[in-house]
Amino acid sequence: KKNIIKENNMAENVASQENQVSKHQEVGHKSLLQSDALYQYILETSVYPREPEPMKELRELTAKHPWNLMTTSADEGQFLNMLLKLINAKNTMEIGVYTGYSLLATALALPRDGKILAMDINKENYEEIGLPIIQKAGVAHKIDFREGPALPVLDLLVEDKNNHGTYDFIFVDADKDNYINYHKRIIELVKVGGVIGYDNTLWNGSVVAPPDAPLRKYVRYYRDFVLELNKALAADPRIEICMLPVGDGITLCRRIT
């Protein structure tokens, strides 16, 4: 009888863990933590009490948008904001903007004369949702927004050697199938000692999923591109890397040569 009770308890624990994992797969971009309570503790203890009012307003507005899964999580926004202050960033770039939550986190961290070259293929979400809040926050003057594919802009920047090594920080949160192409270009643009941040490098945890794992279509499609990037970054002698389980995974690359 004791064995039966023990086995039933074990089965219930396994089922509970599976339900918890499944729940987090639905909000995989928010956190890779396997505990809702622990993630909520982080948000309520460390993130929300210190979140600047403009970021809170933009986060809450973005949450109502049908594509809200694309946004940077609040804890990652806090992390980026602090990182930029720690490295004294002044000239930065962001590839992939959406409504501009991470862009606002960056703009608030930079000095008054700081600059952000921001690129996205769609300006509508940014202009309608993010820009009014960014303007109200008094940091819109720091942002040079370009609508369209990033690669042509990067190619022009790379062509002019005066742009080489001029960026303190570059954040990439865009089309995963182009991450490798972005890296080939922005490694020339970030300064030695500067930092590149690649978002979604743990990609809903799918980077360790078995080949036959049931994954959503877009997760499965982009997984191989994320795996390719992770392998390339680990082998690149020009950078030091640190992969962090913040948000959906962010890999920081510090250029050393």
From TrEMBL:
- Identify the metabolic or biological route this protein is part of: Aromatic compound metabolism; phenylpropanoid biosynthesis
Q: Which domain of life is it from?
A: Eukaryota
What's one GO MF term for it?
A: metal ion binding
Q: Which Pfam families match?
A: Methyltransf_3 (PF01596)
- Tell me the Gene3D superfamilies matching this sequence: Vaccinia Virus protein VP39 (3.40.50.150)
Q: Which key words tag this protein in UniProt?
A: Lignin biosynthesis, Metal-binding, Methyltransferase, S-adenosyl-L-methionine, Transferase
Report the InterPro entries cross-referenced here. Cation-dep_OMT, SAM-dependent_MTases_sf, SAM_O-MeTrfase
**One biological process GO term for this chain?**
circadian rhythm
Its EC number(s): 2.1.1.104
UniProt xrefs under CDD domains: AdoMet_MTases
Look up keyword Secreted and say if it applies.
no
Q: Which family does it belong to?
A: Belongs to the class I-like SAM-binding methyltransferase superfamily. Cation-dependent O-methyltransferase family.
Protein name in UniProt: caffeoyl-CoA O-methyltransferase
The species this protein belongs to is: Solanum lycopersicum (Tomato)
